[in-house]
């Protein structure tokens, strides 16, 4: 890749927009237009040069579709742009990465974006990919302490694996990448197509459990039960798909305590919850109990189970780890 980049105020009519991985949303464009009117254009779009007719250089958009659409909506003649020479795969990876850092991705969308990123990554670094009957997969391994990611799509160090490299470049945790990879590896593309736009696509826990059902036919039947609304428990859906009734676990002192805490927590105010967290943070908790940060997967599982009020989403929660 040519690392040289240049800044330019480009005429909008010289910028072409190729098909995007995610469509441009009208509401987001309208909000962006308002922000530009109020605060100005604060960041450049990224384009790559293309050959044009009669020695005219045209440009292909790489990143910044909503910003470009907003400037067009405002009728601006030019837009600040960074011009960089990129290969097709490098341009595709930039677009994928631009999507991966968005907060509005569902767990399924994030998993599929990471799958797309791996396809590009595998072509760029084939020596870090293992092949088998199930298709390509990242080689196992971890980077050495001396490894440093190169800037802006530089070469991957020989010891850097897909999960580590992706996590380092995008600011994600390695475990987030690995969980997403298990989803795309365990849930086939046709089934993922059916799940898009449903509540299952928004539930990382449900996707992870569904990915763990090895039998493809049983997995599809389990998904049918989940999508029918009969239950939101993957374990129960699996039982129904297998032709049996879900087993109800016997109540235990721990589960009864968890249920009591769930009820109290749901009824507590934000200040009461904060006081509990502050008090418990200085204490040694019993075995199997821990304070769970709000960005941890266990937090999402807790919310899904007890449906706390919206203001609880910024707090840490106390949870019995043995019950999940």
Low-pLDDT regions: 141-159, 308-324
Number of strands: 9
Tell me, briefly, the overall form: globular
**Mean of the pLDDT scores?**
78
Largest sheet: 5 strands, mixed
Give the ordered list of helices and strands: EEHEEHEHHEEHHHHHHHHEHE
Q: In DSSP terms, counting alpha (H) and pi (I) runs of 4 or more, how many helices? A: 13
Strand order of the largest sheet: 1-5-3-4-2
Proportion of β residues? 5-15%
Note the quaternary state here: single chain
Percentage of helical residues?
40-55%
Q: Radius of gyration from the CA trace?
A: 24 Å
Description:
- The chain has 324 residues and is α/β, with parallel strands linked by helices.
- The protein folds into three domains: 5-85, Conserved hypothetical protein from pyrococcus furiosus pfu- 392566-001, ParB domain (Alpha-Beta Complex); 107-212, no CATH class; 253-323, no CATH class.
- The chain has 13 helices and nine strands.
- It has helices at residues 26-39, 65-73, 88-100, 107-124, 162-170, 174-186, 189-195, 204-211, 216-228, 234-241, 253-267, 270-280, 297-306; strands spanning 5-11, 15-16, 45-50, 58-63, 78-84, 129-132, 135-138, 289-292, 317-320.
- The strands form three sheets. A five-stranded mixed sheet has the order 1-5-3-4-2. It has a two-stranded antiparallel ribbon with strand order 6-7. A two-stranded antiparallel sheet has the order 8-9.
- A hairpin with a 2-residue loop joins strand 6 (129-132) and strand 7.
- It is globular, with a radius of gyration of 24 Å.
- The two termini are 47 Å apart.
């Amino acid at each position: 890749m040519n690392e040289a980049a240049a800044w330019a105020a480009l005429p909008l009519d010289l910028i072409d927009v190729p098909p995007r991985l995610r469509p441009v949303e009208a509401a987001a464009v309208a909000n962006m237009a308002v922000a530009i009117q109020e605060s100005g254009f604060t960041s450049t779009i990224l384009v790559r040069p293309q050959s044009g007719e009669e020695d005219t250089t045209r440009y292909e958009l790489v990143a910044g579709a909503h910003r470009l659409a907003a400037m067009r909506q405002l009728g601006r003649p030019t837009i600040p742009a960074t011009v960089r020479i990129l290969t097709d795969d490098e341009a595709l990876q930039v677009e994928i990465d631009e999507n991966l850092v968005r907060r509005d991705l569902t767990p399924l969308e994030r998993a599929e974006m990471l799958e797309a990123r791996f396809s590009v990554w595998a072509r760029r670094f084939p020596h870090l990919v293992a092949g088998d009957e199930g298709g390509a997969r990242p080689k196992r391994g971890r980077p050495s302490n001396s490894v440093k990611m190169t800037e802006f799509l530089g070469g991957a160090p020989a010891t850097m694996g897909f999960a580590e490299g992706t996590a380092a470049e995008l600011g994600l945790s390695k475990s987030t990448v690995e969980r997403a990879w298990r989803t795309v590896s365990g849930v086939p593309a046709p089934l993922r197509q059916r799940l898009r736009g449903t509540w299952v696509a928004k539930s990382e826990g449900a996707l992870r459990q569904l990915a763990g059902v090895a039998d493809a036919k049983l997995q599809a039947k389990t998904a049918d039960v989940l999508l029918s609304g009969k239950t939101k428990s993957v374990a129960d859906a699996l039982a129904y798909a297998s032709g049996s009734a879900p087993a109800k676990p016997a109540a235990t002192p721990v589960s009864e305590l968890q249920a009591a805490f769930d009820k109290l927590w749901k009824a507590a105010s934000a200040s009461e919850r904060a006081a509990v967290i502050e008090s418990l943070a200085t204490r040694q908790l019993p075995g199997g109990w821990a304070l769970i940060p709000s960005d941890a997967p266990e937090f999402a599982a807790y919310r899904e189970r007890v449906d706390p009020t919206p203001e609880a989403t910024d707090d840490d929660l106390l949870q019995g780890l043995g019950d999940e």
